[in-house]
Amino acid sequence: MEEQTSSNFNKVVWENDRRHFVHPWTHFDSFQEEGSLIMSRAKGVYTYDADGNRYLDGVGGLWCMNVGYGRDEIVDAIAEQARTLAYANPFVDVSNAPAAQLTAKLAELAPGDLNRVMLTCGGSTANDSMLRLVHFYWGCKGEKSRKKIITRRGSYHGSTYITQSMTGKPADRMPEFQYDTDMIVYVSEPNAYRPPEGVADDEFEQWLIDKFRDTVEQTGPENIAAHFAEPILGAGGVVVPPARYIKETRDICRQYGILYIADEVVTGFGRVGAWFASLDIMGIQPDGIVSAKGLTSGYQPLGAAIFSDGIYDVIAEAGQDRWFTNGYTYAGHPVACAAALKNIEIMERENLPAYVKDDIGPYFMQQLQTLSDLPTVGDVRGMYLMACVVNVANKDTREEFPHEINIGKRISNAAEKLGLLVRPVGNLNVLSPPLTITRQEVDELVSKLRQAIVTVCDDLANEGISLDS
Ligand SMILES: Cc1ncc(COP(=O)(O)O)c(C=O)c1O
Questions:
Q1: Is the CB of 61 under 6 A from ligand 1?
Q2: Is the shortest distance between the CB of 433 and ligand 1 below 6 Å?
Q3: Per-residue pLDDT reduced to its tens digit, 109-139
Q4: Domain 72-349 of CATH type 3.40.640.10
Q5: How many angstroms separate the Cα of 92 from the Cα of each of 27, 88, 327, 407?
Q6: What is the DSSP letter of 171?
Q7: What CATH code would you report for 37-67+351-462?
Q8: Ligand 1 atom with least separation from CA of 234
Q9: In what order do the strands lie in the sheet with 423-425?
Q10: What predicted TM-score, i.e. pTM, was given to this entire model?
Q11: How far is the CA of 125 from the centre of ligand 1 (A)?
Q12: Cα–Cα distance between 374 and 454 in angstroms, integer?
């Protein structure tokens, strides 16, 4: 009887979701037909659907579940804070202890003199706030023509109206939307697997650097406010830019006085073996870092735009008797900040960034590389716990599967049936498991992914689609 009731409830939930919840990135045809997989609970690296089926969460929520599910300590910190002070107005000159403590902690963790922090509701709003800060800064410095923002093709910076314009992923462009292509200037995608026609593999890095410099010079440095760049492009397909390109583009920005903002929404908080990737992994000191996701491990929505004392000093001095009109009702939300503080405490105590860098990250990448023998796996790329499998129709020519094959989604569907969540992004499958994943769980992940790819390859062969490798 009880089972009957719970099964009815699950059906009601599924139907309500299908009818009323317009999801981010809704694909209307398939959604109307198939609805959603409703998740109901989770522990460690495993998540369970409403019917009790277990999945190894290879996506870590959405690149955000860093310390793993079901951490009672974070739950208690959230409950305690909600009970004590559920909300405090953050505008102008009222604050709360968790927000003050968290911003101090972020200043300690961020490299160099990145000691000033704006708190927001997530990654998009943190990028949006950072962009406004950058404009305000140049205005205060008297260089009012510096408005343009350089971003990369293939990048993802969020889903507010301006961060969608900053985003350079062609697949996300909708003809119905309007993009600000005047303010945003795009540079090439630093994807070594797909250099442009006519550029040899070994010339690609220098080509990228030259193109970056050309773009700066043609746009006019006096018109450029900042370059926003992900240390590793995430939603664009886990593209790890070549190392010298990162350093030299940073140098070019410094040479022309352009602010360098690292969008570390995914790469921050241990995912690539450091609190932040910019200095410790990529070897560059940015002027600002944008963070979200792993900041709370997804236990609460929160974003942070962390910037230098140098920027702060300019706006504080020149901005006297003026308002910096930027911020949100939920900026510095005490409950979200309490969750972030506890999350960071756990990461410090369990030494999770070092575990990722010295142990589980290399093991994960090594095991994932074993999939390279499969007929559709053209590339396995990434760093530490941020990875992606590139599926191709022909491994020699790197030819892509036609769109209608929907290879990434087919593989993720097959993996789901085996109890593994992997994220399809076009022809790719993206992985970013919780940082707490064990070697045994990595083995399970890789073995299930292999099985899923083999199943899809067999299905394709049965459908008469040849795999030319
Ligand atoms: C690099 C990067 N920046 C910004 C965002 C936007 O963050 P949010 O979805 O929390 O607004 C994302 C989200 O995936 C991201 O990957």
A1: no
A2: no
A3: 999 999 999 999 999 999 999 999 999 999 9
A4: yes
A5: 41, 12, 10, 50
A6: G
A7: 3.90.1150.10
A8: 16
A9: 377-383, 386-391, 428-431, 423-425
A10: 0.97
A11: 9
A12: 8
The reply to whether 37-67+351-462 and 72-349 are identical in fold is no
260-287, pLDDT tens digit by residue?
A: 999 999 999 999 999 999 999 999 999 9
Domain spans of the chain?
A: 37-67+351-462, 72-349
Please give the distance of CA 364 from its chain centroid, rounded to a whole number.
19
Q: Which residue's CA is the nearest one to ligand 1's atom 7?
A: 123
Query: Which residue lies with its CA nearest to atom 3 of ligand 1?
Result: 157
Q: How far apart are CA 88 and CA 331, in angstroms?
A: 9
Mutation choice for ligand 1 from 156, 167, 272, 430, CB with most ligand atoms inside 8 A: 156
Tens digit of each residue's pLDDT (9 = 90 or more) over 170-207? 989 999 999 998 999 999 999 999 999 999 999 999 99
CA distance 355 to 144: 46
Q: Could you say which residues of the chain have pLDDT below 50?
A: none
Contact 213, 250 (CB under 8 A): no
Predicted confidence at residue 3, as pLDDT, reads 62
- Please choose, from the candidates 143, 116, 110, 140, the residue with its C-alpha nearest in 3D space to the C-alpha of residue 130: 116
